[in-house]
Amino acid sequence: MLRAQCGDRDALELLLRGIQPALHRYLSGLVGATQSDDVLQDVLITVARKLGWLEQPELLRPWAFRIASRAGFRHLKRERRWLSDDAGLEEIAAPEQAPPDELLRELSTMDGISPASRAVLVLHFQEEMTLPTIAAILEVPLGTVKSRLAYGLNAVRKQLGHNRRR
Fold first, then answer.
1. Does position 21 have pLDDT exceeding 60, yes or no?
2. pTM for this prediction
């Protein structure tokens, strides 16, 4: 990381290649597979440009996910695909049971799950981040992360129930 911050191009490329797969998975779940490559490119450019500002190397991953979250949400707002799901959910406790892996992979195409909830589901279950870490990355209170997780899991359960009836 220090070499990359000092302008070593090979070190920077190695660093970016190391975080790229996780960021791509996250952005695919957030903005959809067809749009994720463009958003990822913007994220990697931002990370490369601002890497010198990062003082603690151990914070690279959460910092990069924060940049990816902001870029993904900006993209969704530009595309008018943003749905609000926070109304009235602040008091719901976050369930611990994860949805099936194949369902998590299809989050970006599911109707009824807002990007905010998809972000929390992907970070928590696919990237295995803790709820406080997700709150820091998304820059929202822990209660909001819990409500988005609860809302997302509820929507996944409804989708599962709908698919079983078919």
1. yes
2. 0.72
Q: Model confidence over 49-69: pLDDT tens digits?
A: 999 888 888 899 999 999 999
Instruction: Give, to the nearest 10 degrees, the angle between helix 33-50 and helix 60-78.
Output: 130
Asked if 131 contacts 43 with a C-beta cutoff of 8 angstroms, the reply is: no
CATH of 101-165, one of 2.60.40.1180, 2.40.30.10, 3.40.630.40, 1.10.10.10: 1.10.10.10
Domain limits of the chain? 2-78, 101-165
Close Cβ partners of 151 (under 8 Å, ≥ 6 residues apart): 85, 86, 89, 92, 114, 117
Instruction: Tell me the CATH architecture of domain 2-78.
Output: Orthogonal Bundle (1.10)
Q: What is the pLDDT of residues 74-113, one digit of tens each?
A: 998 888 755 444 443 344 444 455 555 665 566 655 667 8
